[in-house]
Design a protein that fits this description.
heterodimer, A: 607 residues, alpha+beta, Immunoglobulin-like, B: alpha+beta, Serine Threonine Protein Phosphatase 5, Tetratricopeptide repeat, SH3 type barrels, five-stranded antiparallel sheet, 8 helices
């Protein structure tokens, strides 16, 4: 660890030192040469240097024909009155390849002010000499005239779509490069009618390339071509099976020298522009379907990372909370759907906002997709925001990967009153949310089976109950009535007999009066009265006393005067029984009074 | 006496045995339903019905099992049968309503006068036997009150028993007639469910009759007449026509 750190610091220091001195030492050479062809290997140094060491092992593969020839160029720049002078020293070697193949040229080194600087390294591909190509160094007009009009056929001039992959999963990205291959001897000076390919069945994203087409040397089929990149596109196949990129065509403007017909022609401009139409071949891509997707697959194919961030976990009701989920990585990020956030159902949830930031590079589409979920908790409490799961297909491993954000605990407190008033309805009634509909569950317990069609109604027992109860009633009625009638008869008899019994008793009282039997006389009168009232009023003798007798008499509408007489008689009798006061006179009066009261009773008590 | 005892000893075990199997079948069918083996539940419930016994609960559960197997027609049929036996059961009404959502034909019921609707809702308040029971109880009450009226000496008691007595004898009569109507419903079975997926209703009981209208399976209709293998039906909206017998099942 320590060692690493020291090395790192050392390199940083070196880099800083180099930067500070502004010493640049670069090596340059064409990246593809023909066998036997001469080429330049040149070094540029912006300072005076000494002791230039050629790359080690250079002479093994290349023959140094000439060199070094040194040159010096000075450029003086004045910007805003500030003048900078830059002197560039160049060392040029002319080399020739000894053998075919790909060779690496290791860095050269040079000493500047006692310090050693190393250049970059290079790779040079050597291909076999092209038979039709005569001496490259031909400079004479005549020679050029013959070499100029080389065939504009497929060997010398063609376009092709270069795909990074031919066998992909659906949604996996492919980098398609439209390249123009030109024989270095064919002078191109323009394009016309460019119909770039339409990638049908693909979702495309263009990679930014410089407007100016830079031609580089490239070896293709053991030949050196000038290659220009016309367009770079990232393709995302959207269909399964074999997708074909249809051929496309373009016209190239080539300057050709017209063969001299006469001697004078040479004096005039005898070049003409020829239109050469080139057409690419169709390219096919084999697209495999993705394996069965897991639950949280959102269409992402590539390699992604997932991160999330919540604005606050401690809020009050009706505060807006933002959960930011960032999906970053390399793949079809634009085609990824927003994963679903499962929130408690009484949250106010707004549609998530999605922003893409994707850049297309030579490595494919890379960037981030930011999804902002905005929601408002309506009620206080502690809620758990579950993790968002995001599954994607990794074409490198051929498997699905699932990433999940962390889960958050949201503590919601009751908002203050002022906050509540800002909300339209602070008191909200939640409607019952019907989630599904189903029949009610079966009934359990006893089946309570009955024979089909049987009902208690209409059965014999049903009617019997009516009949029995009716019959019972009638029987009881008659029994009761008979008894009542008998009772009534007894009372009637006694009622009728009452007067006779009373007169008999009064007569007995009269005989006692004559015998001067004071106690027996009064007794007989009382007996006569009580017996009479008992029979008349149907009150048993034992229950009879003055009070209820009087009230009963009043009920029977007996006049108060008679009742008063009756009371006087009873009082006198009871008094006289124990304390005889009056003589025969008084007894006689009492007797008379009792007799009249009795007869008036008889008249007034109707029944 | 001895003979009777022997007879009972022979008969009773059969009776008990039969009862037991039905109870067992009932438990078994409910267990099948709970474990979501609806097809087996259906066949077990049907076995109970095959013994000639029925109950509103049984029809209800059978309807549920049919519903879960996706046989809406049979589900509706059994719910309707349950409804005949237990007209005021909320669960039956609810499930019937859900099952009816699957019925394609929509029929607007003819509006009935309010007193008929009231009467119907009163009658449907209880099944036959509850009405019969109410009738008996109120009749007995009437007799008691009549007795009180006849023998009571107190004027107030007489008056009360007179009025309540009149009320209870009326109640008894109404309950009796309601019971009779409910019983009539069970006996007549003049409603049916369409079982053909799609059937054309004809103007006369023959294939050559004019096509009147189309009805789809699951619809409940009233049977008004029968001729040969044809049935005259009446929809709730008053439309009438003839259908082949084979297309309907009586409730």
């Amino acid at each position: 660890m320590m060692k690493k750190l020291i090395t790192y610091i050392f390199f940083v220091c070196v880099a800083i030192a180099a930067r500070a001195e502004q010493t640049r030492f670069t090596m340059s050479a064409p990246n593809a040469v023909e066998m036997g062809q001469q080429f330049r290997l040149s070094f540029q140094l912006n300072d005076r240097g000494s002791n230039l060491q050629l790359p080690p092992g250079l002479s093994d593969n290349f023959q140094i024909l000439m060199g070094p020839s040194t040159g010096q160029s000075t450029s003086i720049q004045t910007i805003n009155g500030k003048t900078t002078t830059e002197i560039t020293y160049s060392y040029t070697y002319i080399l020739r390849a000894r053998a075919e193949g790909k060779f690496e040229v290791r860095p050269a080194s040079v000493e500047v002010n006692g310090k050693v600087f190393e250049s970059n390294s290079l790779t040079i591909q050597v291909v076999k000499a092209q038979a039709s190509t005569p001496a490259q160094s031909g400079t004479s007009q005549a020679e050029q005239g013959t070499t100029q009009n080389i065939d504009l056929d497929k060997d010398n001039l063609f376009v092709r779509v270069d795909l990074s992959k031919r066998n992909v999963y659906r949604g996996e990205q492919i980098i398609a490069t439209v390249k123009l291959y030109v024989n270095p001897n064919v002078p191109i000076h323009g394009f016309d009618d460019v119909n770039l390919p339409t990638y049908e069945g693909f979702y495309t994203q263009d990679i930014e390339i410089p407007q100016q087409i830079n031609f580089t040397r490239e070896v293709y089929n053991d030949k050196i071509y000038q290659v220009g990149i016309l367009k770079k596109t990232i393709l995302f196949p959207q269909q399964n099976g074999r997708l074909t990129i249809e051929p496309f065509s373009m016209a190239l403007l080539v300057r050709q020298r017209v063969k001299a017909r006469s001697f004078f022609d040479d004096f005039f401009d005898n070049y003409r522009t020829v239109k050469a139409r080139v057409t690419s071949d169709a390219v096919a891509v084999n697209v495999k379907d993705l394996p069965t997707a897991p639950a949280h697959f959102m269409g992402g194919v590539g390699n992604f990372q997932l991160s999330s961030e919540i604005s606050s976990t401690n809020v009050s009701t009706n505060d807006a909370v933002t959960l930011k989920v960032r999906i970053s990585g390399n793949g079809n990020i634009r085609l990824v759907r927003s994963p679903k956030l499962e929130l408690p159902s009484d949250f106010e949830v707004y549609d998530p906002r999605t922003t893409d930031n994707v850049s297309a590079t030579n490595n494919g589409a890379t960037g981030t997709k930011t999804i902002e979920y905005l929601f408002q908790p309506r009620f206080e409490g502690d809620y758990t925001i579950p993790p968002i799961r995001f599954a994607y297909f990794n074409p490198a491993t051929g498997k699905y990967d699932t990433k999940a954000t962390e889960s958050y605990t949201l503590h919601v407190e009751k908002g203050t009153e002022e906050q509540n008033t800002t909300v339209v309805s602070s008191l909200r009634k939640e409607d019952l949310q019907l989630i599904g509909q189903d029949i009610r569950y079966i009934k359990s317990g006893k089946a309570m089976l009955q024979v089909k069609g049987y009902t208690f109604y209409g059965s014999t027992i049903f009617y019997l109950i009516y009949l029995i109860s009716a019959v019972l009633f009638v029987v009881l009625y008659f029994v009761y009535r008979k008894k009542a009638r008998e009772n009534a008869n007894i009372a009637l008899v006694r009622n009728k007999k009452a007067n006779r019994v009373a007169t008999k008793r009064l007569k007995a009282a009269a005989t006692f009066m004559k015998q001067n039997n004071n106690e027996a006389f009064h007794d007989a009168i009382l007996k006569a009265f009580w017996g009479y009232l008992s029979d008349k009023l149907s009150i048993p003798i034992a229950d009879l006393n003055r009070e209820n007798a009087v009230s009963k008499l009043k009920d029977k509408n007996v006049s108060d005067e008679v009742i008063q007489d009756f009371e006087e008689v009873v009082e006198q009798c009871e008094f006289a029984r124990y304390a005889p006061v009056g003589g025969a006179e008084a007894r006689h009066d009492l007797y008379k009074k009792a007799e009249t009261t009795m007869s008036r009773f008889e008249k007034q008590i109707k029944r | 006496m001895k003979k009777i005892i022997i007879f009972l000893l022979i008969i009773v075990p059969f009776f008990v045995f039969a009862q037991e199997t039905n109870e067992q079948l009932w438990e078994k069918a409910n267990a099948f339903y709970t474990t979501e083996e609806y097809q087996q539940a259906v066949s077990s419930y049907e076995q109970i019905l095959a013994t000639g016994e029925e109950s509103a609960k049984l029809y209800f559960n059978l309807g549920n099992a049919y519903f879960k197997t996706g046989d809406i027609n049979n589900a509706i049929l059994n719910y309707e049968r349950a409804k005949v036996l237990a007209p005021h059961d909320e669960d039956v009404a609810f499930n019937l309503q859900i099952a009816n959502q699957y019925v394609v034909t929509k029929v607007e019921e003819l509006p009935k006068p309010f007193f008929l609707r009231w009467k119907e809702s009163v009658i449907n308040k209880y099944p036959t036997d509850t009405w019969a029971f109410i009738s008996i109880v109120s009749f007995v009450l009437f007799l008691l009150l009549l007795g009180a009226f006849l023998f009571s000496k107190r004027v107030a008691l007489k008056r009360i028993s007179f009025w309540i007595g009149i009320f209870s004898v009326l109640l008894s009569g109404f309950a009796f007639s309601h019971a009779a109507q409910q019983k009539n419903k069970i006996n007549k079975r003049n409603h049916a469910i369409v079982f053909c997926p799609r059937v054309t209703v004809k103007s006369s009981p023959s294939e050559t009759g004019t096509d009147l209208f189309l009805i789809y399976e699951g619809l409940k209709l009233e049977v008004t007449d029968q001729l040969n293998s044809w049935t005259e039906i009446k929809l709730a909206d008053g439309n009438q026509g003839w259908l082949p017998d084979s297309c309907i099942v009586r409730i």
